[in-house]
Every structure is written in structure tokens, then in C-alpha cells.
Task: structure prediction
Amino acid sequence: MAEIKYTNQRIEILNYLEGNYTHPSVEQVYGAVRKKLTRISKATVYQNLKFLSEKGLIREVNVKGVSRFEPMLEPHHHAICRNCSRIIDFRSEDLTECSLNSAKKIKEIKVDSVNINFYGICAKCRAVK
Amino acid sequence: MAEIKYTNQRIEILNYLEGNYTHPSVEQVYGAVRKKLTRISKATVYQNLKFLSEKGLIREVNVKGVSRFEPMLEPHHHAICRNCSRIIDFRSEDLTECSLNSAKKIKEIKVDSVNINFYGICAKCRAVK
DNA sequence: GTACGTGCAAATGATTTGCGTTAAG
DNA sequence: CTTAACGCAAATCATTTGCACGTAC
Result:
């Protein structure tokens, strides 16, 4: 159903994100991938990050209206610092299960994914204040 | 600690959002409030929506990088249509409780709020396809 | 009276688009 | 080959900012 064209650009983006837990922004993906593919354009990075997200090969996380990306991992949640926008992965099988149970009960929308974000101020930022 | 200056602009925005379950965008808040305060500027609407969110009088919901707003209500979650961006409120005490339990276990961040969003395609949009 | 809010217009920043060229299958 | 992807520059859209003036308290 979905034949994906593996261009060099897509391969490098996937490579960079594989096993990457830093939740990079488009700018950061662009900067990193450009080391390998000097001529890649930012528009291509945008297009491919969107494309790969839609295909389910990577995942988008939106923080303050800005897109960030991560590879596809086992189900987990995010704790986000309101101040520095750092994203910390957090795993809870209980919560995952509970949310999937809830998802089944929503009739108006056929749920295909769930996002759970915890917000607050991280230790580093609290220390600075 | 937080003495809020109740200007006409702020009062009208709060009035419009009170009991409003439609999750309006900034543009929609602006359009509505302008009927009462003809000379209000969009910048003021932006500034006040941000200000009132920070004060905890209203709540911001981000969909596809765009801000939407709702009055402060009992804890609930959102089901969002990927296609038309419609937001549907969904209540589950189980899930709320479970998420609050999880929040306590996150050490790196002192969690002060949790957002749970369910994504999928709504009934209307599925019908059109 | 004074600090804070407002209106306006211009600036910013992220993301998208149009189009001629290139490359994957 | 042929269609989808790329690179580039320009366009778009949401949101922010600088500043002179106005107003809540």
C-alpha cells in the first residue's frame, strides 16, 4: 500500500534520528544532515520530516508551536520544561494502558494515537531562578 | 501576589470564553470580541490570551502548531481530528487519576499540568472520504 | 500620578509553496 | 522512462515586538 522512495535525503534523516533521544528541532536535523549531504535544502528536510511522520517511521512532538522529532520507540510519554523546552521521556505501562482503554470509549473520533505531555519546570531551570 | 488589572479587553475575552466549548482560535476570539470592542487590536488579543493562560484563568490547547482556547473547566482530555482540527472534550476520572499518579513519579521536572490528547479522524471527516 | 495596557504597524520565525531540475525504481 | 523528490527563493501564516498614547487603580 505504501511504497516509500528511499532517497539519500530520507535515509540520512532516518539515520540521524535512529536511537536519537534528544528530540531535535527541524533546524537541528537540518544542521546534522547537512554534514553528510551538503546541498540538502531546508525545505526538503521539512517535507521529509512531515512525510516520514505520516508514514509512521518517526514521531513528531510539538512544543510551544515548534516541531521536534524522535524515532519510533516503544510507547512512552513526555515531560516538557516550560522554560527551556527540554523534553524528557517517561515510561509508564499503567498510564499507557489506561489511555488506550479510554481511547476505545471515544465514539466521535476513531483514535489512532495518544499524546500525553507533562509540563513543569525542570531541575536545571529551577536552580537558575 | 497576582493583582490582575481587569481592562475592558480582558473582561470581554473572559466573557466570550466563559462556558464556551468550541475551542476558538485567536482569530475567532478576535472576531467575536471585536463586536463589542470595535477598536481592539489583534496584538491585544494575543497578549491577553497569553496573559490569562499564564494566570490560570483560561487554558491553551495547541493543535498543529496553532493556539486554541477554552475556559478553565474540571479536568478533561481532548480528542482531536487530524483532518478538520475539531476538538472534542472527553472526561475520564480514571485516566486523570492515573496521569496524576504518574506525574508524581517524574523527578526531573516538577509537573504542574498534564495534557492528554487523542488523535484520529472524526466521524464527519470519515463520511466525506 | 504612575505603571501597566492598548493600538498600530512593522518585524520575526516557523513552515509551505511554485517551479524548473534531478534521480529513484 | 516517468513520477515523485529536490533545491532554491519567494510566499504565507501565526505570533511577537517597539513605541507613542491611554486608562485602571
User: Anything to note?
Assistant: DSSP finds five helices and five strands in chain A. Chain A touches chain B through 39 residues (CB under 8 Å).
